[in-house]
Design a protein that fits this description.
The structure is a single chain. This protein starts with a strand and ends in a 9-residue tail after the last helix. It contains 3 helices and 4 strands. The chain is globular. The chain is α+β, with helices and mostly antiparallel strands. It has a 4-stranded mixed beta sheet. Strand 1 (2-6) and strand 2 (12-16) form a beta hairpin.
C-alpha cells in the first residue's frame, strides 16, 4: 500500500492501492478520498476538500505528501492516467468524474 499524507490540522494519513497512479509533483491528485479515509478522520479531510483541491507536494518512496492547490495548472496528461485507472477500478473514482 501507498500512504497519502493529507494537509489537515492532524496530518491525516490514508492507505491507497500500490498500483494507484501518482502524478508528478505539482499536479492535482484525484481519488475517492471518502472511500479511503478512516471514518474518524473524514471530517477534517472533507473540510480541506470543500475549499481546495489537493496536489502532490513530495514523493518519498511509498509516502506521497499532498498540499492544497496546485503549482502545475496543466492537468490533462495526469487526468488521462487517472481515467484509465478508474475504468478498471471504479470504486476509486472521486465524485464528479
Amino acid at each position: 500500500m501507498k500512504t497519502l499524507i493529507i494537509p489537515t490540522h492532524i496530518g491525516t494519513e490514508i492507505q491507497i492501492p500500490d498500483d494507484y497512479p501518482i502524478p508528478p509533483v505539482g499536479a492535482f491528485f484525484w481519488i475517492n478520498f471518502h472511500r479511503f479515509t478512516p471514518p474518524d478522520e473524514w471530517e477534517p479531510v472533507r473540510r480541506v476538500l470543500e475549499v481546495n483541491s489537493l496536489s502532490v507536494s513530495v514523493i518519498d518512496r511509498d509516502r506521497i505528501y499532498l498540499q492544497e492547490g496546485s503549482i502545475n495548472p496543466d492537468v490533462e496528461d495526469s487526468l488521462k492516467i487517472f481515467r484509465r485507472y478508474w475504468e478498471k477500478n471504479p470504486d476509486t473514482r472521486p465524485p464528479g468524474f
